[in-house]
C-alpha cells in the first residue's frame, strides 16, 4: 500500500471510529482501509489502483535494470543447457539435503538477496508474507494463501546444490527447443552451447506439439525444485502446484510463448498461474509486513497443508 494514500486520507479505526495515529495499523486491516476510503467517497473497488507505490508499468523493466540484474541474466542464459538440466535433476533425485519445517525454511532463506530481481529490496520472508497477505486480503482460498506463503522457498536450493544464483532464481524457459524472443534479454542466449544445436534450436526441439508442459524441461531453479519437494508432501491442490512450478515462466504466462506445447490440463493451469501472478509481482511495493503478528495465523495455515510438519528438502 502506498504511504501516499494514507497521507491524503484521514484514517479511522474501523471498529470504534477513532482516528489512527499510525497508518501501518490500517494497512493490516482491510476494514480500516475500507472505512478510510468510504470517508473520502472512494468505492472499495477503486482502491486497487492505490495498491502499488509503483505504477504497474514500472515493474520488470529489464532494459533499464542494473548491471547486477543484466549480468545475472547473461550468465543464466549462457549456462542453462539441456546437459546441465539433466545433471541437476539427477542430482536432485539422488540426494538428501535437509529435513525441516516450512517456517524453519522461511527463516533459513532470509539471508538470500535475489540478484535477478529489479523490483524489491525486501527480504525473502517479507516477500513471502506480503504475497500471502495480499491473497488473504482478497478473500482467496486457504490453499492459495499457503501457496503464496511458500512459493519462493525453492530458493533454498542456493544453500544446497546450486552453482550460483543462475540455477536458482530468475525467470524460467524451456531447454531442448529454441529460446523464444519473448524471454527477457533474448540476445544473451547466443553464447549458450545449445543455441546452434541442430535439434535444440528448432521450434519444437525434443518435444512435440501438444505434448503437455509436464513433458517439457524448464530451466532448473527454485520453481521446479519446490514443485518436486511439495508435490508429495503437502495437500496443496493442482492449481497451487502449478502456481509454484510456473510462476517464473513469464514467457508463457505473460507473453504467450510456448503455447503450442500445452494440453487441456495446462490450459486450465495457465488461468491459475495468471491469477496468482499479480500477488507475487505487485505486492512487492506494499508495506513491509510485521512478522511476529502474522506468525500464529500462518503457522496454523502451514499445519493444515503440511500435516507431517517436518519435510524433506
Ligand atoms: O527475479 C524474480 C525472482 O527471482 C522471482 O522469485 C521469480 O519468480 C521471478 O520470475 C524473477 O523474475
Ligand atoms: Fe519466484
Ligand atoms: Fe515471488
UniProtKB/TrEMBL annotation:
Top EC category: oxidoreductase
Location(s), subcellular: Cytoplasm
InterPro entries listed in its UniProt record: Inositol_oxygenase (IPR007828)
Keywords annotated in UniProt: Cytoplasm, Iron, Metal-binding, Oxidoreductase
Residues holding Fe cation: 127, 151-152, 222, 247, 280
EC number from the UniProt entry: 1.13.99.1
Cofactor(s) needed for function: Fe cation
Main localization of the protein described in the UniProt heading: cytoplasm
Catalytic activity annotation: myo-inositol + O2 = D-glucuronate + H2O + H(+)
The keyword Acetylation is assigned to this record: no
GO molecular function, one term: iron ion binding
Family (UniProt): Belongs to the myo-inositol oxygenase family.
Protein name: Inositol oxygenase
Organism from which the protein derives: Morchella conica CCBAS932
Taxonomic lineage: Eukaryota, Fungi, Dikarya, Ascomycota, Pezizomycotina
Amino acid at each position: 500500500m502506498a504511504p501516499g494514500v494514507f497521507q491524503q486520507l484521514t484514517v479511522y479505526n474501523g471498529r470504534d471510529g477513532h482516528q489512527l495515529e499510525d497508518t501501518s495499523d490500517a494497512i493490516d486491516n482491510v476494514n480500516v482501509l475500507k472505512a478510510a476510503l468510504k470517508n473520502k467517497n472512494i468505492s472499495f473497488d477503486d482502491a486497487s489502483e492505490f495498491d502499488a507505490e509503483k505504477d504497474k508499468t514500472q515493474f520488470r523493466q529489464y532494459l533499464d535494470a542494473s548491471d547486477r540484474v543484466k549480468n545475472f541474466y547473461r550468465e543464466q542464459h549462457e549456462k542453462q543447457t539441456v546437459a546441465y538440466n539433466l545433471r541437476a535433476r539427477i542430482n536432485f533425485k539422488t540426494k538428501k539435503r535437509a529435513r525441516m519445517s516450512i517456517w524453519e525454511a522461511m527463516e533459513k532463506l532470509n539471508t538470500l538477496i535475489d540478484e535477478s530481481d529489479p523490483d524489491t529490496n525486501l527480504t525473502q520472508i517479507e516477500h513471502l508474507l506480503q504475497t500471502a497477505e495480499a491473497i488473504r486480503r482478497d478473500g482467496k482460498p486457504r490453499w492459495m494463501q499457503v501457496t503464496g506463503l511458500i512459493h519462493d522457498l525453492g530458493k533454498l536450493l542456493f544453500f544446497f546444490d546450486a552453482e550460483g544464483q543462475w540455477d536458482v532464481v530468475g525467470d524460467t524457459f524451456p531447454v531442448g527447443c529454441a529460446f523464444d524472443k519473448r524471454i527477457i534479454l533474448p540476445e544473451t542466449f547466443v553464447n549458450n552451447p545449445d543455441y546452434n544445436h541442430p535439434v535444440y534450436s528448432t521450434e519444437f526441439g525434443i518435444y512435440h506439439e501438444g505434448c503437455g508442459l509436464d513433458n517439457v524441461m524448464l530451466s532448473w531453479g527454485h520453481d521446479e525444485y519446490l514443485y518436486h519437494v511439495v508435490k508429495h508432501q503437502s495437500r496443496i491442490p493442482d492449481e497451487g502446484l502449478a502456481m509454484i512450478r510456473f510462476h517464473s515462466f513469464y514467457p508463457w504466462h505473460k507473453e504467450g510463448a510456448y503455447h503450442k506445447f500445452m494440453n487441456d490440463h495446462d490450459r486450465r493451469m495457465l488461468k491459475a498461474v495468471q491469477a496468482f501472478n499479480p500477488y507475487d509481482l505487485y505486492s512487492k511495493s506494499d508495506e513491509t509486513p510485521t512478522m511476529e503478528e502474522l506468525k500464529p495465523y500462518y503457522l496454523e495455515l502451514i499445519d493444515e497443508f503440511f500435516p507431517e510438519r517436518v519435510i524433506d528438502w
